[in-house]
Amino acid sequence: MAASETEATNAILMSGVKFAWSGAPRFGMSIAELAVPAGQTVFLLGESGSGKSTLLSLICGINQPEEGRIEIAGQDIVPMKGAARDRFRAEQIGVIFQMFNLLPYTTALDNILLPLRFAPERRRRCPDGRGEALRLAKALGLPAALVERTQAAALSTGQQQRVAVARALIGQPQLIIADEPTSALDANAQAAFLDLLFEQVQQMGATLLLVSHDIRLAERFDRRLDILDIADVRREAT
Amino acid sequence: MILLRLAIRSLFSRRFTVGLTVFAIALSVALFLGVEKVRTGARTSFADTISGTDLIVGARTGGVQLLLYSVFRIGNATNNIGWDSYQQIAARPEVDWIVPISLGDSHRGFRVMGTSAEYFARYRYRGGRSLGFAEGAGLEDLFDTVIGADVARDLGYRIGDPIVVSHGLASFTEHDDKPFRVAGILQKTGTPVDRTVIVSLEAISAIHLDWKDGSKSANPLSADAVRALDLAPDSITAAMLGVKSRMQVFRLQRDINEFGAEPLLAILPGVALQELWQIVGVAESALVGVSAMVVTTALLGMAAMIFAGLNERRREMAIFRSVGARPRVILGMLMLEALLIALAGALLGLVLLYLGLVVARPWVDAAFGLYLPLTAPGRFEASWIGVIVLAGGLVGLFPAIRAYRMSLADGMTVRN
């Protein structure tokens, strides 16, 4: 038990990971070691095309490495079967994209509730899903009427991103991954957005891994990494 | 349930393309079920036209042909039965009753039928119902007629109105020297009787007595003069008869078919109807086949529509994947979508069918004498709607598999 306790103190642990994409152009990535302790907020600097999408896909268990270990909350996801990995991602990870995070044809509320459909553990943690969704939305500055009645497509970009945060946070997954979540926002909105995100993540004690090309965002994070330092990317033009 | 709600909302957000697809499926389903309704309607309508008659006797011809011209007033007799032969058959001990029929003349597009007074007592339709009078009574005077409900309605006849019978079915020669009088109007039956002008057999003889070789004589007999003459006919078109015991039907039929004096044909109406269905069956199958193809086309159109939308929905699939949905969920969502479209189409089709039936029923009845019963959708419709919805789901499998592959390849990366 003690061993797994210590292992679990790392929210993310990657070691000896080698990934190759067989399509054209050929593309490979290897990560010798990356450890993110639980509860840490990590800024990962990466230009677009630096391989950050691949790295995030590996952490989320959407892409499979050829070798190596990828542990999330102490569990190696590499040997898992596809369905188990999807389920694991649903339970453990909340994801925020750059933009267009939401299903446009339904309400913000439905969008926030969606992960609970695939994550029974998270559902158990908030039996009143609707109440929890509205609470999160309120904490993120979204009025209940807007969340319940307005179609996601009708929300402003800033509002959409905050709904995406609520969706990532509902049911308290321990790892939040954000891929350029502020790049569609203006400078003021960026700061406000990050304030809200940090507040919620810290309240939950979750780990935050945020990827961005914008170094100005980096200062408030516990730790700053450059993707070029942790990942070795090979690329062949065809 | 959230997935079903999302599928419905997603469809609703694309309501124009989805609506068109649903409408196409609805039309095809209405056509398919409509063809079946007309088919069964025609069958029952035909089967209901004659009831309680054991044998129909006519000159030797095809069984179906005899049935068609004697009962349904479709086509013409090529030959007649001699009155002597008729009387010989009538005298047979097996015969319980016999009613002669004489066709050939018309009145403003409606066929005129000469028969005996017993016709009104013996003719049965729709499971044994007898003819009833809406107004007036039966044939009493020589120049009395009883007209069917449609004749009365279409021509606006009342009791006592005069009627002039035309010679033949489409001629300008009128028996205008011997006008008839409307003595009775029958109740609606939903059979060819509604479109028939019934006169006595003697009246048919009377209006033709002074005719020679199919044209009017130069010195016609007056209407009063013919009353004094012998009006027994030389020949009739056909006869309907009932036997005392059904066990005797086949022997009587064989005897009539081997009748010595002239070539005759006796048919069992039910058997002749079966023969008719066999002939018509090919056309029916073709109709059913074509309408099934139309349904298939509409379902393929739906698959094409879903296919066409897949690329724009990669973002949506990536979102589903990011919250932990397995690719199988994407597959299921798209099949659910196809099922919902097919279901909506099938149900709307049913609505269209019944709307169409309500609107077209009186017209079909008037134009084709085809009575389409307005029955609630039953097991037949339910099972076909089930089949169509399942087929929709199956067709939806193709775009669903494509989406499944796309979501496997894309993962959470979204290409715009």
From TrEMBL, chain A:
Residues 12-238 form the ABC transporter domain. Gene3D superfamilies: P-loop containing nucleotide triphosphate hydrolases (3.40.50.300). It comes from the Bacteria. Keywords: ATP-binding, Nucleotide-binding, Transport. One of its GO terms (cellular component) is plasma membrane. InterPro entries: AAA+_ATPase, ABC_transporter-like_ATP-bd, ABC_transpr_LolD-like, MacB-like_ATP-bd, P-loop_NTPase, Sigma_54_int_dom_ATP-bd_1. GO terms for molecular function: ATP binding; ATP hydrolysis activity; transmembrane transporter activity. SUPFAM superfamilies: P-loop containing nucleoside triphosphate hydrolases. This is Putative ABC transport system ATP-binding protein. It comes from Aliiruegeria lutimaris. The lineage of its organism: Bacteria, Pseudomonadati, Pseudomonadota, Alphaproteobacteria, Rhodobacterales.
From TrEMBL, chain B:
Residues 19-205 form the MacB-like periplasmic core domain. The keyword Zinc-finger does not apply. It is found in: Cell membrane. The keyword Ribosomal protein does not apply. It is a multi-pass membrane protein. One of its GO terms (cellular component) is plasma membrane. Keywords: Cell membrane, Membrane, Transmembrane, Transmembrane helix. It comes from the Bacteria. Residues 290-407 form the ABC3 transporter permease C-terminal domain. The chain crosses the membrane at residues 286-310, 331-364, 384-404. InterPro entries: ABC-4/HrtB_transporter (IPR051125), ABC3_permease_C (IPR003838), MacB_PCD (IPR025857). This is Putative ABC transport system permease protein.
